[in-house]
Amino acid sequence: MNIRFRHILYATMMISPFLISSCSDELSAEGNKNPGSIYFRVSTSQLDDQSSMTRSSIGEVNNSLPVAFQGSTGHTGNVYLHESCYGQIDKGLRTSRQDTRGSIITNENLSTFRAWGYYSDHINEESTDSIFKRLDITKSTTTTTLWSRAYAWPNNHEFYRFYGITPYSATGVVINDRNTAFYWAPEITYTPSTNVDEQVDLLEATTITNKEEMYSRQGEVPLQFKHITTAVRFSVDELPAGDTIKSITISDVLNQGTYFLLNNTGFDHTGWQYYNATKTSYTINLGTGYIVNNDSKNNYITDKVMFVVPQYLPDSARISAVVRHAGVDHTIYADLGGKKWPMGATVIYKLSSSAINYAYELSVDPIENFSHQAGSKTYRVTSFLKDNGGNTTTAKGWTITGYKVDDAANFSNTCPSWLTLSVTSSDGTLVNVSGSASISEAGYSTSGNHITNLQVQKGGYDATHAEDLSFYDADGNRQVSRNTANCYVVHGYGWYKFPMVYGNAIANYRTNASSYSSATSSSETYLNCFKNARGENISSPWIRSDLGIGNNSRLASVIWSDTEGLIDTEVVTSNDYVIFHIDRDKIKPGNAVIALWDGDGKTNDANIVWSWHIWVTDESLGYSDCIPVTNQNNYTSHMMPVNLGWVDSESSTRTYLGRKCVVELTQETSGKKATFVINQVGERIRAGYNTYYQWGRKDAMPPNKTFYSVAYPNQTKARHPARTYSYSASSTGSIAEGILNPEKLIRYSSTANWLNGNIINLWDMGNTQTILTGDVVVPSDARITKTIYDPCPVGYHVPSSGALTGFTSIGANSSGFSSSEEYWNILGTISNWNAGWSFFSAPLTANSNPKMSEDAITIYFPATGFRGDNWSDFCPIGSTASNTGDVWNDGDFGCYWNAGFMRTDNTHARAGAFFFHYDRSETDANGRSGKNMNPLVNSNNESAPWHARSIRPAHD
Predict the structure, then answer these.
(1) b vs e for 612-636, b when ≥16 Cβ sit within 10 Å of the residue's Cβ?
(2) Do residues 677 and 404 touch, judged by C-beta distance below 8 A?
(3) E runs forming strands in 526-643
(4) pLDDT score of 624
(5) How far apart are CA 530 and CA 956, in angstroms?
(6) Predicted local confidence at residue 538, as pLDDT
(7) Nearest to residue 740, comparing CAs of 853, 880, 595?
(8) How far apart, in whole angstroms, are the C-alpha atoms of residue 255 and residue 258?
(9) For 517-669, where are the alpha helices, taking DSSP H only?
(10) How far is residue 378 from each of residues 421, 522, 860, measured CA to CA in Å?
(11) For residue 408, what are the CA distances in angstroms to 403, 411, 421, 441?
(12) How many CB atoms lie within 10 A of CB 436?
């Protein structure tokens, strides 16, 4: 299933911060876990058993052409070397020995490993404090895969890294901690013994996880060990009967390597390095020798395995063998220089009197993932037998022999009802055979009853006991410290309050001065101290203190609401809090804005000095609900599953569950198997609306629906005048004007407009430069320093300018018609338009194609249009441009802000934006290309900061 919806009940977990001294070194019975302990679910990665060395079972990843041995001419006939390589170490290398020396380590015989554990509070940071180091963990005698130790994980941190190494005390293995400023993972130096019996199959495991995953797994950490050496084996084929192979030597290869485990961000190098390596030789002496007979074809010469350092072999490297023929010993050799020993692979060298190497090939071209819609795609099967000696190719027949649906453990002979394959076999007439894979539309579910979901009391039962929203995250979970924001999310009815604080000026109970001031010098485009409603520098997070406003119960009121009566009109203030009530009978998904005034409204000279967005929703907005979106620079942003201020349409939003079928083919004669995957990716196609924002402002503008201006009708109460949404020219174009008029969309004019100063750091205090330098667009992946003008709730911020560059293959803009499809990282075709597109969350690059990935995840961006001027070059046929501030092109344009800024000259001010457009006709009224994809739009209209657009927040 490609869409996951997780709801974790933290209250059910009792996590101890201390060591649990009563735990043993071995596993407690699984089902009797000690709360807070760390458990390791251990496995190894390898191929299936290969029962013999027949051509049908070797399963080579690649074959080299035969190389003639050189040396003594006394041997009758020529001897050739054939090389084969498995993509992974072969389970067939196992022996009955359990000491792991000279044999592969598997799930069954892995009995102990050494472990390291670290924690940090950010994915790109590590703590100098570890959970444990060099901890030896031994397998339980009562269970198989779940291991534990007497350590509790520190649950007050966000990210955890665990490393495992086995064997850790074998000959030639030295393990060190790398305690440097940027790298905490251990390192392994391996010097394979010249005594092959003492060489070892070396494995490592690296797991990076987060707090929520640790909670959900009850402290269980998956450790999948991977093989990091190269296994070298030797076989024989078609030598004269009676010949005896007495020894085999690999000479002049590197004798040592240092392996670095993956660090948190991949900083520094990982994998093998060869700092102190010299050249050495490894010899397998066969005692009385291996005697070749008529049954020797494709047999292993010896059960002994060389476990060596992966490397490109030096030019002088060679393989030699002592072969006794007709009573005389002959030494033959072949050069290996330039060959590669891949990590975690098995290389097999075969001695043969034949220069012909028959190789069976069976493969299926991968096909792109399907969207939820019904459709067909072509698959192509290639099947042949190739004679490398004569370079002849013979077609071989094949048959589809199995289907494995979704997470099934085994193949069955039944094709799922939703899939039809036009070609299921070939008689061997053609090397390449194509067929059509057709699927039906996926089933879907609609949204639940949002109102019912919200009719649960989450707030207090009266004003005195109102719940303080600054102690809750966006998902409605109680936090231990206070964090403020410009948007507070409400998940149920009741009484609520929030402090009169500028945006996120308080973080973790402390003044967050970096959200409104900076040590960087001010300039024409950079503001180092943010302004309040009076245009003065902000000096305190607390608004009343900063502005000198007295204490009064009538300082706040609702400005507008998109649902009538969503918030009781009698909003009250007490000391430094705004208090409001949401009625159970009136609650429904929606948005409202509450304003703070500098007077009680009984006179006409009161001004709005700040305002807050209240978002009522039953959406799950925790970190685990975010969708990881990786860009062209391999930087991952965890995006909120919906737009800011989103209100779902219950009847139109559909969730399509993903489904998958692995199809197995079997080649005739060889029995070789191949698979291809039919993958229909899960999607959530959302319908609804959201609030809009001018770039750099905190103020939510009403969505594309009826909205309500609110005023107090009772003259005995505060008489703050009603504010009606307006689209008006600016008087000053200043930050203060925006704060004083939260209901006003300040439009462009020839004299003044929103953001006249073109300040580039209003949503990111650390942003000191524009994205555009000359004609070169350079987006930023730097961590955002969230400001008091950021409109997102606690735990979220406006994304960086580079967050969505993975939505095209070149990380930049693309426009045109169907010819552009190859550059757009969308599920299905361009015409797979659902008032928006489903984008793949992994980048589309030369080395990575998420359109083919079985684990593909999508994120849907609805085309919610924008508020502002209707652009003349995008007007429908027969219409004209209009300055109304209405919502335009809802369902046709996707317009989203980021925290960057493109260029700052007043004539062509352009903020950071993501824009896409779908016109069902080939051109619009002005002949403009009807389909565009612009992760970094650079246009006067499409990135004008005075237009109000959607925001898809990223998690902090």
Answers:
(1) bbbbbbbbbbbbbbbbebbbbeebb
(2) no
(3) 556-561, 572-574, 577-582, 590-597, 608-616, 627-630, 636-639
(4) 95
(5) 21
(6) 97
(7) 595
(8) 11
(9) 543-547
(10) 10, 59, 26
(11) 9, 8, 20, 21
(12) 12
Rounded alpha-carbon distances, angstroms, from residue 129 to 121, 160, 392 = 12, 12, 62
Report the predicted TM-score, pTM, of the whole model to 2 decimal places.
0.66
Four-residue CA torsion sign, 253, 256, 260, 261: positive
Q: How far apart are CA 419 and CA 397, in angstroms?
A: 23
pLDDT digits (tens, 9 = 90+) for 419-452: 999 999 999 999 999 999 999 999 999 888 999 9
Higher-confidence residue: 703 or 124?
A: 703
Query: Are residues 474 and 614 in contact, defined by beta-carbon separation less than 8 angstroms?
Result: no
The two counts, helices (H) then strands (E), for the chain are 4, 68
832, two tokens: 């797979």
Cα–Cα distance measured from residue 246 to residue 234, given in angstroms and rounded to the nearest whole number? 13
Q: What letter represents residue 719's amino acid?
A: R
| Helix (H) or strand (E) run with residue 30 in it | none
What span, in angstroms and rounded, lies between the C-alpha atoms of 937 and 893? 13
**In the chain, pLDDT over 90 holds for what percent of residues?**
50
SS3 of 74-115: CCCCCCEEEEEEECCCCHHHCCCCCCCECCCCCCCCCCEEEE
| Dihedral sign, Cα of residue 858, residue 860, residue 861, residue 863 | positive
Interatomic CA distance for residues 116 and 168, integer angstroms? 12
C-alpha 550/C-alpha 346 separation (Å) is: 78
* Residue located via tokens 């048959």: 399
The DSSP symbol for 808 reads B
Chain segment 1-17, per-residue pLDDT in tens? 333 322 222 222 322 22
- Nearest Cα neighbor of 834 from 517, 371, 500 is 371
> Could you identify the residue written with the tokens 């924002």?
693
CA distances from 622 to 212, 508, 902 (A): 10, 18, 31
Beta-strand (E) ranges in 326-471? 328-335, 340-341, 346-352, 358-364, 375-387, 392-395, 398-405, 419-421, 425-426, 432-439, 444-446, 467-468
Q: Which residues make Cβ contacts (< 8 Å) with residue 764, sequence separation at least 6?
A: 784, 785, 786, 787, 798, 800, 899, 900
Other beta carbons within 10 angstroms of residue 96's beta carbon come to: 6
Token digits for 673? Answer: 């198997």
Handedness of CA 833, 835, 841, 842 (dihedral sign): positive
Task: Report residue 746 as tokens.
Answer: 């300040």
How far apart, in whole angstroms, are the C-alpha atoms of residue 185 and residue 170? 20
Of 877, 708, 795, nearest to 484 by C-alpha is 795
Q: Cis link prior to 167 (omega < 30° from 0)?
A: yes
CA dist 3 → 641, 657, 681, 684, 858 (Å): 11, 7, 8, 8, 8
